[in-house]
Fold this sequence. Notes:
Order of helices and strands: EHEEEEHEHHHHEHEHEEHEEHEEHEHEE
Number of strands: 17
Helix content: 25-40%
CATH topology of the largest domain: Adenylosuccinate Synthetase, Chain A, domain 3
Mean pLDDT: 96
Strand content: 15-25%
Strand order of the largest sheet: 7-6-5-2-8-1-9-13-16-17
Shape: globular
Structural class: alpha/beta
CATH superfamily of the largest domain: Adenylosuccinate Synthetase, subunit A, domain 3
Bound molecules: guanosine-5'-diphosphate, 6-O-phosphoryl inosine monophosphate, magnesium ion
Amino acid sequence: MSRSVVILGTQWGDEGKGKIVDLLAHDADAVVRFQGGHNAGHTLVVDGKKTVLHLIPSGILTQRARCLIGNGVVVAPAALIKEIDGLEQHDIEVRSRLGLSGACPVILSCHEALDQARERAKGKKAIGTTGRGIGPVYEDKASRHGIRLADLTDPKRLADKLGGVLDYHNFLLQHYYQADPLDVAEVSDQAAMLGEQLKPMLCDVTADLHALRAQGKALLFEGAQGSLLDIDHGTYPFVTSSNTTIGGVMTGAGVSPQDIDYVLGITKAYTTRVGAGPFPTELDDDYGHRMAERGVEFGATTGRPRRCGWIDAVALRRMVKINGITGLCITKLDVLDGFDQVKVCVDYDGIDHFPLGAEEWADARPVYETIPGWQGNTRGMTDADALPAGARAYLERLEELVEAPVHMLSTGPEREAGVIFQHPYASA
Ligand code: GDP
Ligand code: IMO
Ligand code: MG
């Protein structure tokens, strides 16, 4: 029996990870974020009420699971406290159930300012980031002068480190980007004040996970973004700054490959992307507009419209391999209800190997296989036997093309809308 399940997005994010984490959290003793930050927007719909989470693990609406934020997650303290307060105002207990690693890199206002200044400077070549400071904070981590959550709880250590970091960032802001510098004392006071509030939640996330695992408890790791946004394996440089693929679980939480029993890949029945960058199967026609409209494809973090297109089995097959996907959960199948046909990209013309980066992706022209659509309504469907034959044929063809079995299906935003063919925690 699987006791440790990883949930990863297999496309460019927004596949519906949050909904599935919330569902599976009923069987989990801990739900763990391991990378990314509040660039994520995970939507949960429970009893008709919508909750969007950015940093807090999507297990928070269940009573059972402890929620942990591992060292690989970059944390904006003010955004985290706002999110905690927002949930607690709705009578959801957070502080006693949330644990934070002291090693999480801290996003300061200078990181956001730099992210935004850089995007402005890039003009037409902008990545279309969420503007949350994600790139700059991961840079500070890699260049070994970053501030970590634990630093916020020691005023002297904080003042020491912050002085140097802000000097450097202010120089860049002022002299390279012609933007306003930040007031060192102000940033420092605010960081210390927020640190005091977060201090009771700091813990050794890695040790806690190993203790839970030793007791036979069930763990659920919640990926943010999607595999094609991975800093190494995605459509570089139009990517985020973390490893969104399987390796991020190990480095971002401090567990080993032996601590993972099952990897669930969340895959939208079509494809969306928010922000700039390659997207071979992107549509600008009635099919694409219909996906956007029926799928309500607007970013959960920035509200930007998401670009839409057909599903891409070439990219998916690669991501299935990289992540060692055990099973797939196909989401938003209902959005394709009533389409006269659906297409699947089965090959790329113009290149003879998997694209390395944006320049090569630009040469990839999709080769499609067309599959007849299905009539009938799958929206909200929970009965596998009621699935239209055409929808079933689509899923079966996807299984063949991407070389992974479909273990779950999502048919609506609500927690209960979907079918579980094989439960991840029940798998051998
Ligand atoms: P995440 O970032 O992967 O958690 O996904 P988002 O929450 O950003 O985006 C997914 C959107 O689709 C949200 O608005 C969900 O409520 C919604 N959603 C999730 N699953 C389904 C589904 O099966 N059908 C439909 N129609 N909507 C869904
Ligand atoms: P969830 O977890 C979709 C995209 C941004 C941009 C690129 C880099 O909800 O699936 P960043 O701010 O990370 O430096 O932006 O990555 N991006 C996402 N797209 N879903 C997300 O998260 C995303 N997080 C970042 O739009 O293209
Ligand atoms: Mg999202």
